[in-house]
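WARN no homologs supplied; continuing
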Amino acid sequence: MNIIITDKWNEYLTKLSDHQKDIYYLEEYVKLYENENSKALCIVCSEGQNVLLMPFLRGEVEDYFDFETQYGYGGPITNASDKTWIDKALSGIKDYFRDNRYICGFIRFHPLIDNAAFCKDTMNVIYDRHTVAILTDKGDEDIWTTQISSKNRNMIRKAEKSGLIYKAEDNLESFPEFIDLYNATMKRIGADDFYFFDGDYYQKFKNDLIDNSFLATVRLDGKLICSAIIMYEGDFGHYHLEGSDHEYKSLGANNLLLWKSACRLHELGVKKFHLGGGNSTSEEDPLFKFKKAFTHNLESFAIGKEIYNKDIYDRICQKWERDNPDKIVIFGNRLLKYRY
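OK structure emitted
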């Protein structure tokens, strides 16, 4: 069994089928989140025809490393079906991290690939919340009649009667308008800095991922009132970043955008359109309930908290707690608390 860490891993993804991988695993996507504090890398375990890999963003703390998986979803993926081999590979990866000065790693597992299921025996997997995914494999009629709620269908009809116009832009031509709308939305809801991106991020996205995305737009009398980046690769599509003008909320622009985008993804051969979850873990979360109005299909999102060198990790955390007592209430339960 061979285990390496590399900054070029797309060639390994070709060994996996469409339901075993996703856009979140592409080099081009993960490298969007590189900065002076984070290096995009991938750990790869291979033996014969079997391969298991996990991209991540490596950070540095003192003379050691830590990591977290990329924005969105990640965790180990594999083309192997032999559970014994998978467990052996995952154990080998843990040993590799431990032996190469990694103290810990935070993982956001992928709900559609459900990699948490084959990791739970060897990793610290923690269920977090349900997410929502529209089943797009059977077509528009199935989505409209068997998945979207009657109240939601009425909102979509209202949007169309109100003169709202949907368009899917393959060339992302309205990107500048979208960025302004997205940033205004994040400011309005008081979003954390984590959800804001600089100009380089959007330029790299447009340069490297234009063939795996489209910009969904909804306009009223020419004005952009709702827009989202929709990403796709193989079997899966994703509702990535979204912005909307709160003044027009009652017209159902978001409802129209998601319905039409689901239809567009079906045309592209996508089998599931992942909308994500709510702003909290509650099943009564308003955003979660809004997304559930599009389908009965729920997925399970889990996180992983791995500690490879406990003594060093504990020492670093204890020092952070002594130096930052005012931050313990907010960040104290996070694995990478000392980054704040």
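The radius of gyration is 21 Å.
OK
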